[in-house]
C-alpha cells in the first residue's frame, strides 16, 4: 500500500490521528506482552534504591569524597616542600601556618567525614575550605589547568553541601536524639 502526503490541513490532521492510534496500539500491545512481564514487575530497581537514599549509598558517597581529602592531606604531609612553595608563591604571609591548617583540615575533616562524626558540620567546613582554597590558589582562570582546578573545588563543595543536607547514616557515631 502506497501513501501520499495529504494536500490540505484537515487531511494532515486525520493522518496524525491515525498514526497516533497505531502508535498507541503498539505501545498497549508491548505493555501487555507476556515476555516483558518480568521487566514490568521490577521497575528500575537500581534507581529506586538510589531514590530511597539508602544508608549504604549515602555512606559510600561520603567515604568517596572523604578519600579525596585524606589522600590530598597525606600527600601534603609526606612531601611538604612543593606545597609550601606553592603557598608562598601565592602571596600568603604565613606559609607554614597555612600549610599546617590545610593538612589538619584535610586529614581531620576527611577522617571525621569518612566515619560520619558530626557529618553536617564537617561537610560544611570542608565545603568552605574547598571554595576558599579554590578562589585563593586557582584564581588565574585564563590558564586552563587553573580553571579546571577551580571548577573541581567548586564541584567538591557542591557535593559536600549535598552531604550536609542529608541525615547522618552512622548512628553509632552520632549523638542519639533526646526523646
Automatic annotation (TrEMBL):
Segments crossing the lipid bilayer: 63-88, 94-115, 122-141
Keyword match Membrane: yes
Protein name, entry field: Putative membrane protein YphA (DoxX/SURF4 family)
Keywords: Cell membrane, Membrane, Transmembrane, Transmembrane helix
Matching InterPro entries: DoxX, DoxX-like_oxidoreductase
Biological source species: Massilia aurea
Localization, UniProt: Cell membrane
PANTHER family: INNER MEMBRANE PROTEIN YPHA-RELATED (PTHR33452:SF1), OXIDOREDUCTASE CATD-RELATED (PTHR33452)
Major place of residence: membrane
Similarity-based family: Belongs to the DoxX family.
Membrane disposition: Multi-pass membrane protein
A GO cellular component entry from the record: plasma membrane
Amino acid at each position: 500500500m502506497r501513501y501520499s502526503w495529504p494536500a490540505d490541513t484537515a487531511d494532515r490532521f486525520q493522518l496524525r490521528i491515525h498514526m497516533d492510534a497505531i502508535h498507541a496500539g503498539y505501545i498497549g500491545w508491548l505493555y501487555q506482552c507476556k515476555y516483558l512481564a518480568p521487566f514490568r514487575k521490577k521497575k528500575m530497581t537500581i534507581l529506586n534504591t538510589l531514590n530511597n537514599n539508602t544508608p549504604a549509598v549515602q555512606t559510600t558517597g561520603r567515604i568517596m569524597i572523604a578519600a579525596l581529602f585524606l589522600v590530598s592531606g597525606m600527600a601534603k604531609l609526606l612531601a611538604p616542600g612543593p606545597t609550601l612553595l606553592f603557598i608562598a608563591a601565592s602571596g600568603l604571609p604565613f606559609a607554614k601556618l597555612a600549610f599546617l591548617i590545610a593538612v589538619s583540615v584535610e586529614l581531620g575533616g576527611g577522617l571525621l567525614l569518612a566515619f560520619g562524626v558530626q557529618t553536617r558540620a564537617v561537610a560544611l567546613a570542608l565545603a568552605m575550605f574547598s571554595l576558599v582554597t579554590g578562589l585563593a590558589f586557582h584564581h588565574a582562570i585564563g590558564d586552563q589547568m587553573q580553571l579546571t582546578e577551580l571548577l573541581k573545588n567548586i564541584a567538591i563543595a557542591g557535593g559536600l553541601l549535598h552531604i550536609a543536607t542529608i541525615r547522618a547514616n552512622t548512628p553509632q557515631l552520632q549523638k542519639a536524639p533526646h526523646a
